[in-house]
């Protein structure tokens, strides 16, 4: 991780020419949330609710969930927070939902929102708990679904969330099909956030858990950047908000590239906020656009990093 020489950032996120880029945090617990508030996060861009229940043998009750979520959201009264519905399965098995795990290819199986569509009661109880936590915490809550492949799935989730009383609804873009149908997805939700960890896994057919495939699962790969450019172009046409909440969002050198591709918010681990904030504050939006062009035409990740570093100075 690149460190900025002068850690001067104190929020909010903006480019050198004052274009606001919301810098928010990825959290999985109340402790994470407190550190994020301390570090100057403008809100939460990804609350991984499944992290609260990795050891749960039985489904937590609606009221237990409401309490747990309120504790996490309570660090951000009046601020935007994005709560992700349970992303169970594959690398994040939940004993009470995914059972013994007998699927031959769990990364391609019934996971994320697909599980929510089978276990609608579990999803509805979680949505009710999230709506309750908005009232308890005073945070401005959005809900977001993981592992969405089609606009139909996005619309189904949005209806369900709105029926539970949650007015702001988004989906994660982490399956290539969702990038290719982005315009239709934008019609049925209020925002999207790119999960670059899974998006890379599915673009390169490379298991994200395998260190030996890390050179493929690299957000600087031209194929991944081109997909993000496709999404960014669709978003700019309609002024649609696009966040990134995968690990890529915490790479300070990549942040200007992502902004140049059309990304309007970045969500990362609290420890990355100041270096990303500093880097963005020193680049104009024209420099971000140029960094994106340079990265897109680079032949490989090493060349892209070197050329962008050179361009941004
Ligand atoms: C992602 O896939 O990039 C993401 C942010 O979600 P997770 O890492 O929890 O799958
Ligand atoms: Mg993911």
Q: What does this 3D model show about the protein?
A:
The protein has 313 residues and is an alpha/beta fold. It has an 8-stranded parallel β-barrel, surrounded by 6 helices. The protein starts with 21 loop residues before the first strand and ends with a helix. The protein binds phosphoenolpyruvate and magnesium ion. Magnesium ion (MG) binds next to α9. The site of phosphoenolpyruvate has 10 residues, from β2 and α9.
User: For the report, how would you describe the main beta sheet?
Assistant: 8 strands, parallel, barrel
Rg, please?
19 Å
The whole-number mean of residue pLDDT values reads: 96
Overall structural class, as computed from helix and strand content, comes to alpha/beta
**Ligands, ions, cofactors:** phosphoenolpyruvate, magnesium ion
Output the strand order for the largest sheet: 1-2-3-4-5-6-7-8
Q: What is the general shape?
A: globular
Task: State the separation between the terminal residues, measured CA to CA.
Answer: 17 Å
**Helical content band:** 40-55%
Quaternary arrangement of the chains shown? single chain
User: Unreliable runs, pLDDT <50, ≥5 residues?
Assistant: none
Topology as a string of helices (H) and strands (E): EHEHEHHHEHEHHEHHEHEHHH
Number of strands: 8
Compute the number of helices.
14
Strand content: 5-15%
Protein name: Phosphoenolpyruvate-protein phosphotransferase
Enzyme class: transferase
Subcellular location: Cytoplasm
Family: Belongs to the PEP-utilizing enzyme family.
């Amino acid at each position: 991780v690149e460190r900025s020489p002068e850690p001067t950032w104190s929020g909010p996120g903006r480019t050198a020419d004052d274009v606001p880029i919301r810098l928010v945090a990825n959290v999985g617990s109340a402790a994470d949330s407190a550190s994020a508030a301390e570090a100057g996060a403008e809100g939460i861009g990804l609350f991984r609710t499944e992290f609260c229940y990795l050891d749960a043998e039985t489904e937590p009750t609606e009221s237990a969930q409401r309490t747990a979520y309120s504790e996490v959201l309570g660090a951000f009264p009046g601020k935007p927070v994005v709560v992700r519905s349970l992303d169970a399965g594959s690398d994040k098995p939940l004993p009470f939902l995914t059972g013994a795990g007998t699927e031959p290819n769990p990364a391609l199986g019934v996971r994320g929102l697909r599980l929510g569509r089978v276990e609608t009661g579990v999803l509805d109880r979680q949505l009710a708990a999230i709506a309750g936590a908005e009232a308890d915490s005073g945070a401005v809550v959005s809900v977001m679904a993981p592992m969405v492949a089609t606009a139909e799935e996005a619309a189904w989730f949005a209806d369900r969330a709105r029926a539970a009383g949650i007015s702001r609804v988004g989906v994660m873009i982490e399956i290539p099909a969702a990038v290719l149908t982005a315009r239709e997805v934008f019609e049925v939700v209020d925002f999207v956030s790119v999960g670059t960890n899974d998006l890379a896994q599915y673009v390169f057919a490379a298991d994200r858990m395998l260190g030996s495939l890390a050179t493929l699962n690299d957000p600087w790969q031209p194929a991944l950047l081109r997909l993000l450019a496709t999404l960014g172009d669709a978003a700019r046409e309609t002024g649609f908000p696009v966040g990134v909440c995968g690990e890529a969002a915490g790479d300070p050198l990549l942040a200007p590239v992502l902004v140049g591709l059309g990304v309007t918010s970045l969500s990362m681990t609290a420890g990355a906020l100041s270096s990303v904030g500093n880097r963005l504050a020193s680049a104009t939006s024209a420099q971000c656009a140029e960094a994106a062009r340079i990265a897109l035409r680079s032949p490989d990740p090493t060349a892209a990093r070197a050329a962008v570093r050179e361009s941004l100075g």
